[in-house]
Amino acid sequence: MRTKCLIIGSGPAGYTAGIYASRANLMPIIVEGPQPGGQLTTTTEVENFPGYFDGVEGPKLMEDLRTQAVRFGARIISGLVTDVDFSERPFKVVVDHGKDTLEADTIIISTGASAKYLGLPDETKYRGMGVSACATCDGFFFRNRPVAVVGGGDTACEEAIYLAGLASKVYLIVRKDYLRASKVMQKRVEENDKIEVLFNTQTVGLEGGELLEKARLVRFKGTPQEEEFTVDVEGFFLAIGHQPNTKLFEGKIELDPQGYIVTDGKTTRTNIDGVFAAGDVADPVYQQAISAAGMGCRAALDAEKFLMLNE
Fold first, then answer.
1. Which residues contact 215 (CB under 8 A, 6 or more apart)?
2. What element of type H or E holds 110?
3. Is residue 134 annotated as a catalytic residue, yes or no?
4. Is the same domain home to 253 and 232?
5. pTM of the full predicted structure?
6. Considering 203, 238, 273, which residue would you say is the last residue of a domain?
7. Statement to judge: residues 160 and 300 lie in one domain
8. φ, ψ for residue 94, nearest 5 deg
9. What stretches of the chain adopt beta strand conformation (E)?
10. Same structural domain for residues 6 and 47?
């Protein structure tokens, strides 16, 4: 199969790119990837996406975007891209180790980024029921309730400060005996009465019924001073970073030191003519559904312009 525009990955960026590419008559094909709809399909209620003033369930939001893309003519393929060849146009893409081979005049990469988790079984049990990797997305649901943030860098401190404006209490769980965050962020955390920093502390479990109620922690793990204790929390936020889903593209496209795809200025162009990137896979800063959707729009417009100039 050959298309003018192939979109690798779904989620807000991929589906929005599909909407705009379809309306531009590029007859796009979207290969959805291992998690159709992306990270939002694991989120319960979304209240900060424009147009849904009463909020919307994450899976419903993604289904709406998918339906809109299909309505305008996008073709959806369920599968995982396992190899790409960007050496010449048309580009070649292999799906599911050879089940399908696609050719494309342009490609939009929107494979997203995955939040890093601690690896505790309880994280999966309470994901969407207290466990979150996005304070901006889910902090509102924990107004006047105790929460915990895991991490010691700038992101963790920023999220702790943000949550302190909503929650009744914020525990900042730090594995080391110091914060890695900038001096400015450290000072802001220290000056915030709602934030209690738990140094030399690791999480070993989460407890509760249907919803999260407690975090089980251990201080000075592996030493004679080891001490296990619990804190009452209803929200548990991971702020230990994201991993962009770019392993497939290593050595084939320019990546930054963290693995994010590098784009040219304010465009979505990559270092390969005709290949564009949108959403969290190229955005280590904002990582919001609405900004990903905006990048998906821009990528489709960039692809359309590229085709106009190169056909």
1. 148, 171, 173, 203, 205, 206, 207, 230, 231, 233, 236
2. none
3. yes
4. no
5. 0.79
6. 238
7. no
8. -105, 130
9. 2-8, 29-31, 45-46, 56-57, 75-77, 81-85, 91-95, 100-109, 113-115, 131-132, 146-150, 169-173, 195-198, 201-208, 212-219, 227-232, 235-238, 242-244, 275-277
10. yes
Verify that 231 and 130 share a domain, yes or no: yes
Which residue has tokens 């592996």? 222
Q: How far apart are CA 23 and CA 27, in angstroms?
A: 9
Q: What is the mean pLDDT of the chain?
A: 93
CA angle 297, 44, 53 (to 5 degrees): 60
Summarize the confidence of residues 226-244 as an average pLDDT: 94
Residues 165 and 82 both lie in one domain: no
Comparing CA positions, the residue from 246, 252, 250, 245 lying closest to residue 86 is 252
262 is in which domain, residue-wise? Answer: 2-114+242-310
> Among 5, 134, 157, 297, which one carries the catalytic annotation?
134
| Segment 106-157, tens digit of pLDDT | 999 999 998 889 999 899 899 889 999 888 888 999 999 999 999 999 889 9
The one catalytic residue in 137, 157, 280, 302 is: 137
Of 74, 98, 71, the C-alpha closest to 6 is 74
Question: How many angstroms separate the CA atoms of 108 and 117, rounded?
Answer: 27
Based on the residue annotation, tell me whether 5 is a catalytic residue of this protein: no
Find the CATH number of the domain harbouring 125.
3.50.50.60
Instruction: Verify that 129 and 187 share a domain, yes or no.
Output: yes
One of 138, 280, 283, 302 is an active-site residue; which one? 138
Do residues 188 and 208 share a domain? yes
Active site residue 138: yes
Are 43 and 58 in contact by the 8 Å Cβ rule? The answer is yes
pLDDT at 154: 86
Residue 91 token pair: 């580009």
Residue recorded with tokens 């505790």: 120
* Number of structural domains the chain divides into: 2
